[in-house]
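Quiz preparation item.
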């Protein structure tokens, strides 16, 4: 494999980061602060709304923790330091760590073909490794997007069998494994399945044995049983259109991509071990914080200069290296950011889906790190240019031509295109689920060359020799590409 100079530099930097975490004393951080300064960050959270718990961890110890808002709106239960939160995709690091520990024990290799353990997956003629699943470089389509496109919602239930059946229906990958990085929750559910098939234990059981119990994280678990009572739990909420809130729960018992419930105090224990190394042993840590490598030798980039490793995102905030992961699901939104050189971590766990956990951790970390930053703060007044999209309205002729029913075998679903004034709506499935692009603030335009869409979705119109529409190809829909819908009789 060719390793370019940029990747060599990145790997060297990662090695230094690992060494500094294990050996160096933390850089002096001023922990003398006015709590009022932190309170101002959360000033918009009221006593009767969903909110957050904030934790600031220095050298593995909580130096600040405080709850804002309510854990339960119906019973007016406030968020406290004992409140248990669902942490959504912030859970991925625990799944990746479990998989890496399993490999460290010699029970699997991260370079094994996943079909060795999950033969239900199609043979695409290219090997997909467990490492590809960890680094989001597999090319496997994101199952949450697939189920959404089939008409499912967060509150709908589907099983592991249905998950595997959905993936087995996919006739192609979005890209060759290792060619690029594209976030896919599917890879983390597959890791959970592999762990269970190899060990005979669920991911919940395995993570408890290998991570949570050794670190005495007594209030942390993978929530794979919705009947399981969780003391002091927060409930997730989404704002409604009337100025109130709806419960944002989910009946899902699939875990791996998310599913961890935890507290601020337990995350502090986990953070302390990042430096002490009981579970975060050197071999485990190296795999966890080393970015994945693409086929061309470059690192798996989430965004420019931001890389994906073992369920963790590796980057820099104003010149200071960080290790982090955020998450959002079922009305919860979370962020956990660690600055290893300073041995400072900041986490915000929130139960309002419209709250900005990443913004909160950024502002709070600024309070502690302002004098340590290497780079100047980016100007908020910089002129930003949105992705330019040709905003030509769709003609009535085109709307009439595409109206009708279309079938996709990858999803086993029928889409109905219905003209709605100067645009169209999607009716998905038999129930059906209705997608109105205007209401989602995602208007669809005529992009030219028989392509409709916006910056998030592209739909190619397929016509026969007479110009009649025979199919629609959703060439780009979030993290799923090239879904072909064939026109069917009305």
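Solution:
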């Amino acid at each position: 494999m060719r390793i370019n100079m940029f990747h060599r530099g990145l790997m060297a930097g990662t090695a230094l980061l690992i060494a500094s975490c294990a050996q160096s004393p933390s850089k002096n951080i001023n922990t003398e602060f006015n709590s009022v300064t932190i309170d101002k960050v959360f000033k918009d959270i009221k006593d009767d709304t969903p909110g957050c718990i904030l934790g600031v961890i220095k050298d593995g110890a909580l130096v600040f923790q405080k709850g804002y808002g309510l854990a339960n709106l119906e019973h007016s239960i406030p968020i406290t330091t004992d409140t248990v939160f669902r942490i959504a995709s912030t859970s991925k690091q625990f799944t990746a760590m479990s998989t890496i520990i399993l490999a460290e024990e010699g029970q699997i290799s991260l370079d094994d073909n996943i079909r060795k353990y999950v033969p239900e997956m199609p043979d695409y003629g290219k090997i997909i490794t467990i490492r590809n699943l960890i680094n989001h470089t597999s090319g496997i389509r994101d199952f949450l997007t697939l189920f959404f496109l089939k008409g499912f919602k967060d509150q709908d239930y589907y099983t592991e069998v249905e998950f595997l059946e959905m993936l087995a229906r996919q006739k192609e990958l979005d890209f060759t494994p290792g060619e690029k990085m594209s976030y896919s929750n599917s890879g983390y559910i597959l890791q959970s399945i592999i762990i269970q098939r190899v060990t005979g234990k669920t991911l919940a059981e395995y993570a408890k044995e290998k991570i949570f119990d050794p670190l005495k994280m007594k209030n942390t678990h993978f929530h794979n049983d919705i009947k399981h009572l969780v003391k002091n739990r927060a409930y997730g909420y989404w704002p409604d259109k009337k100025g109130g809130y709806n419960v944002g729960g989910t009946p899902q018992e699939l875990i791996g991509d998310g599913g961890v419930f935890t507290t601020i105090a337990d995350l502090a224990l986990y953070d302390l071990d990042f430096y002490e190394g009981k579970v975060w042993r050197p071999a485990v840590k190296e795999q966890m914080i080393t970015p994945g490598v693409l086929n061309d030798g470059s690192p798996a980039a989430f965004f420019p200069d931001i890389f994906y490793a073992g369920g963790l995102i590796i980057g820099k905030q104003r010149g200071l290296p960080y290790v982090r992961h955020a998450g959002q699901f079922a009305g919860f939104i979370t962020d956990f950011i660690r600055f290893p050189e300073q041995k400072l971590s900041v986490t915000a766990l929130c139960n309002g889906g419209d709250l900005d956990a990443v913004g909160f951790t950024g502002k709070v970390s600024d309070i502690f790190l302002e004098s340590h930053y290497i780079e100047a703060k980016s100007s908020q007044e910089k002129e930003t240019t949105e992705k330019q999209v040709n905003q030509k309205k769709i003609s009535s002729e085109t709307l009439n031509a595409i109206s009708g029913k279309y079938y996709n075998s990858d999803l086993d679903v029928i889409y109905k295109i219905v003209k709605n004034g100067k645009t169209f709506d999607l009716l998905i499935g038999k129930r059906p689920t209705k997608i109105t692009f205007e209401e989602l603030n995602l208007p669809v335009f005529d992009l030219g060359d028989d392509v409709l869409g916006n910056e998030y979705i592209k739909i190619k119109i397929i016509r026969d020799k007479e110009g009649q529409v025979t199919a629609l190809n959703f060439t780009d829909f979030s993290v799923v590409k090239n879904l072909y819908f064939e026109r069917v009789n009305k």
